[in-house]
Amino acid sequence: MTSRFPIYIVSKGRWESRLTSKALEWMKVPYYVVVEEQEYAQYAAVIAKKKLLVLDKKYQAEYDTCDVLGDRKCKGPGPARNFAWEHSMSGGHTWHWVMDDNIAPFYRLVNNAKIPVRSGAIFSAAEDFVLRYENVAVSGFHYDFFAKSKQKIPPVYLNTRVYSCLLIRNDIPYRWRGRYNEDTDLSLRVLKDGWCTALFLCFLAGKARTQTMRGGNTDELYARGTLAKSQMLVALHPDVSRLVWKFGRWHHHVDYRQFQKNQLRFRQGFAPPDGANEYGLRLVTTAV
Amino acid sequence: MITEAKSEVGTNVPSTRDALVRRFNQLNQAIVAGIPETARAYDILARHLPLLREMQSLLSQRPKNATGADFTMLNRQMEKTTSFVMPVSNRAQLPTWTEWLKAYAGAIDYSVRHIRRLVMGEEQQKAVKECGWSQSDHNQLFRAATAAFDLANAIEVGPLDLLNPDWWEEHWKGMPSFHQEDLMPKGSFHVHFESEKDRDDFIKRLGHYFVGQKITPKTRTLYYPQKPEPTDADLTVKGKCFVDADFEGELTQ
What we know:
The complex is a heterodimer of chains A (about 290) and B (about 250). Chain A has helices spanning about 20-25, 40-45, 55-60, 80-90, 120-130, 180-190, 220, 225-235; strands at about 5-10, 30-35, 50-55, 95-100, 105-110, 115-120, 135-145, 155-160, 165-170, 195-205, 240-245, 250-255, 280-285. With about 290 residues, chain A is α/β, with parallel strands linked by helices. Chain A has a single domain, classed as Spore Coat Polysaccharide Biosynthesis Protein SpsA, Chain A (Alpha-Beta Complex), CATH 3.90.550. In chain A, strands 1, 2, 3, 4, 5, 6, 7, 8, 9 and 10 form a 10-stranded mixed sheet that branches. A two-stranded antiparallel ribbon of chain A has the order 11-12. The mean pLDDT of chain A is about 90. With about 250 residues, chain B is mainly alpha-helical. Chain B has helices at about 20-35, 40-60, 95-110, 110-120, 135-155, 170, 195-205, and strands spanning about 75, 80, 240-245. In chain B, β1 and β2 (about 80) form a beta hairpin. In chain B, α1 packs antiparallel against α2 (about 40-60) and α2 crosses α4. Chain B is elongated. The chains are: A alpha/beta (about 290), B mainly alpha (about 250).
């Protein structure tokens, strides 16, 4: 079982580690990797060429960085994400997955245990869940380290930010923007317009913490710390965010409470079925 | 200095001999004539400023026993406010500077304090008032205000299912099973030691209750009754994984 919507991994400088690519291979889930032209050869040496998409430079040139630095600084993953968005639409898809390149493995949280999943069924289940509603715009898997095994938590959080591993509805009138925090910015724009977001905790993305792994945005964007990153978000959304210093670096704090009023609406005619659907998943002990 | 002429208390005929009264009437006439019926114009105040300063100086010379309490600046005729001046007849009818200024401020819709500041040439001080509240008091006020907003939102939105910890059950039907217990400790407290000797003594005494469990100065948490604390890593099942019907790998059991 696999996802019905295309999966895009936006990758830069990580052809050696390529964690997400390896995880999806392990799960036998098809995917694309969006790479920059100058790194194509390195990626092509380790990933099947049919899975590689070279980022059209037009998306970088036209990208709204929300600052005045222009091309003097890396524009982050936004241009490649917009490229993936348009690519999925050109293929006639109504949703698409877009993921960072440092995710591995994917987990299912159940009975207070995080268990690796070697199947695309979790993508399929997440897709089925969001398709039940007419007003979910952005969805995705939470980081594994934010879902505490010992805590009583729901399988999904509503109306909060979604990042790194996203399932996006293609017909919403937004595109990625901003050099940093583009995930939070997109979630906030969606929520402010009354859409819902769904962040799964029963399906998790095992992810290296931001700024702990070389490659990607780490080297270029965060070379001077996180202040500019957080300042940009506060400048874009001063009504819900503020700048705070904690854990030894600058962070942004966003208050999502006001979006609790965005209520899920079932699609017309949909009625939740009784019982559970395991999507063919079974727990096994494997040699690998 | 304008010297006082013979008192003319008791007559309504404006004095033309008392220089102070004469000058008051002139100033009052000049100022009142410059007040539009509906006025809040900064330029009027700016134009009047030299006259106001002279008026203040002038009224400081009024007799202490003067009774100008009934002073009005803009007079109403036939339900319409007009800017004609009622001349005073003698010094006893002169208003105090405060009375006059209050009437003037009301006429041009400025605060007395602001005009007085301009007349005195004082710069506006943007001082933060000491309200006597502590930082903690302020924070509590913010929290109370935030809670009030939240309550107002809750009332506006209606019953918020997200506040119900089990809101998801109805929405999760037909999805993969999900069950999660609360395994968090139900209470914890810190123990502080004033010396390493006290700490070591405490650890020694704890050994009585935690038989067989190694407790060292580096131990940070304990469970009572004694049990190994499940860490997040412990709860990440190693060697197991979820697979589907397409799985072709090797199973160990």
